[in-house]
Specification:
By secondary structure, the chain is mainly α. The chain folds into 2 domains: 145 residues, no CATH class; 100 residues, no CATH class. Helix content is 40%, strand content 8%. The protein is elongated and about 75 Å long. Bound molecules: zinc ion (ZN).
């Protein structure tokens, strides 16, 4: 898992999740909730899939496996729609996630802080709901509309969830990786002995099954190639042109666009301590 950045442009974020359409949809959400008619259909968030995929380099936001490598990815509600119903259509509550991470998590969302304030809809008139619509989530590309991004981040932090938010939290200092050459698997583990490190790894393992067999084996395939390249480069015996190629490959492996880049960064920087030019 690495920290992602939203692409806040009209070209990226579909119209349904911003501007007047966003407010209109939220009004519908509030009204249906008040009337006990709220039902979720994937067609409501499906249009966000390509935009989220672009932000995530077509990788799962949790496990960093490529959508094209046999892991179908879809729109993930970071805060489950059946719990945080008012964030069900909010773009800020979305990420691109593989079926396996997403399906394991379902409606589990443990947190230790202050619950996110739920909009009150019971007994409200249509006019009151219309006034409330658009105010409890941010507009992804217009900072002047709706809840500010700072406030959204503040509520996320106040709730203090076990599972990190891929766009708001940088958990890279907390995530470690361990290669097992006998099992030929790379496991995610706490980077250090802190409670924060143990908590985030535990959340990713229990909620997203981040150490599942197929995934940890896939990570190992990438790891073993990187190790060979790193060893060759460190040996200082390569011709200059090959040296450069090896450095480029190692740097590319750490790039956010590459699968398992958090793992590559961990081994290249922390374990092998390579000082790449
Ligand atoms: Zn995944």
């Amino acid at each position: 898992m690495i920290q992602l950045t939203r692409i806040r442009t009209e070209a990226n974020v579909p119209k349904a999740f911003r501007g007047a359409d966003r407010v209109k949809r939220e009004r519908e959400l509030l009204t249906k909730r008040r009337d006990g008619e709220l039902e979720f259909k994937s067609s409501q968030w499906k249009p966000a899939k390509d935009a989220l995929g672009a932000e995530s380099f077509r990788k799962c936001a949790y496990c960093e496996s490529l959508a094209s490598a046999g892991y179908p990815c879809d729109v993930e509600h970071l805060r489950p729609k059946d719990v945080h119903w008012w964030l069900a259509w909010a773009y800020e509550n979305y990420a691109f996630s593989c079926f396996l991470c997403n399906n394991k998590k379902l409606n589990h969302f443990p947190f230790e802080g202050t619950a996110w304030p739920e909009p009150k809809v019971a007994g409200k008139t249509d006019a009151q709901l219309a006034a409330l619509a658009g105010t409890f989530t941010p507009d992804p590309i217009d900072a002047a509309e709706g809840l500010t991004l700072a406030k959204f981040a503040q509520r996320h932090a106040a709730e203090d969830s076990d599972l990190p938010h891929p766009y708001l939290d940088d958990v890279s200092p907390l995530l470690g990786f361990r290669a097992d050459d006998v099992l030929e698997q790379v496991f995610v583990e706490p980077a250090n002995g802190t409670a924060a490190s143990k908590r985030v790894v535990n959340a990713l393992v229990t909620l997203c099954d981040i150490n599942r067999d197929d995934l940890s084996r896939d990570r190992y395939l990438r790891y073993e190639l990187l190790r060979v390249i790193a060893d060759a480069w460190s040996s200082d015996t390569l011709p200059p042109a090959l040296q450069l190629e090896h450095v480029d490959t190692l740097k590319r492996a750490m790039d956010a666009s590459r699968p398992y880049s958090a793992m590559a960064r961990h081994f290249i920087r922390r374990v092998w301590k390579l000082q790449l030019p």
